[in-house]
UniProtKB/TrEMBL annotation:
PANTHER family linked: 2-PHOSPHOXYLOSE PHOSPHATASE 1 (PTHR11567:SF110), ACID PHOSPHATASE-RELATED (PTHR11567)
UniProt GO MF annotations: phosphatase activity
Record protein name field: Uncharacterized protein
Source organism, top-level taxon: Eukaryota
Keyword annotations: Hydrolase, Signal
Lineage: Eukaryota, Metazoa, Ecdysozoa, Arthropoda, Chelicerata
Naturally occurring in which organism (per UniProt): Larinioides sclopetarius
Coiled-coil regions, chain positions: none
Amino acid sequence: MWRFFFLAGLTCLFLDHVFTVDDVKKSGKRELVYLQLLTTNGFHAPLSLYPNDENTEDDWPEGMGLLTKLGKLQQYEMGKFLRKFYHHFITSDPGEVDAFSSFEDRSTIGLVTLMASLYAPTEEWEFLPGFKWQPTVLCYMEKKDIFFSYKDRCTTLLKEKRKILSSRPFRDHMRKDKHDWNLAAVLSAMRLSNGFRPPPCATISFEMYKQDEEYTVRALFFNLTNPEMGADQDPHPLLLEGCTEYCPLASFVRFFAPVIPEYKKLCGKKIKDPEDVDMEAETTLIHMYADLKAWTTPLPM
């Protein structure tokens, strides 16, 4: 059973699914049994240019909106660091990880690059002696997915966005920060956002521990300004209000309950746009979300 769930690129929600760990010994020692990582892209070319921009698309050989060489290096070094940081938990077995990316090319490319170092094979997994790369299964969500691409599919959200864009303070000072909005949304949901844009490859890890028959969750924030340097990071513990660093699972679930809405009820009717997709259609993550809700229902709240 997968014990490691990885969301790369434009990620927006803390999602989980039922897991089983048979090898956890009842020794009274806290033991990491499940890990989830949410990460942003490395540096990428602009999505578009100003009409009179002195730079042209030729100045971005990788293509508009795609990862630059710097961005790829940032993703690769971040993967190396995470492998080192979680060396006691992550192995070279690609079957232990479930990796997802948004449909954006920069996200899928970033995930491929990060996984190359995160799952660099040890000798037993090498298919070519000395070649420190192995294929891993990566999944990317279709554009219709409501978890990675909700912001342009939600009628209610678009209406509120129009109100903000037409307000005087916003018109006087407008800043377009589309990248990293999902990670920022998670921090906001945790009531821990400082209002600043997360740096390239910023990562939140959710660690689930088991001690005897009790589960706790610890959240860490990795936000090194220059991940391409390959330096070790001292992550910042993300402490939820009313919780210690190792938060009881029931308290963790209770904290997030108010910010996990019924998506279709909140967003209203689907957007009447010929390019829009069917918001009624289910996606891969829908089932994982349903499993999490069903799994947490019996917990003492």
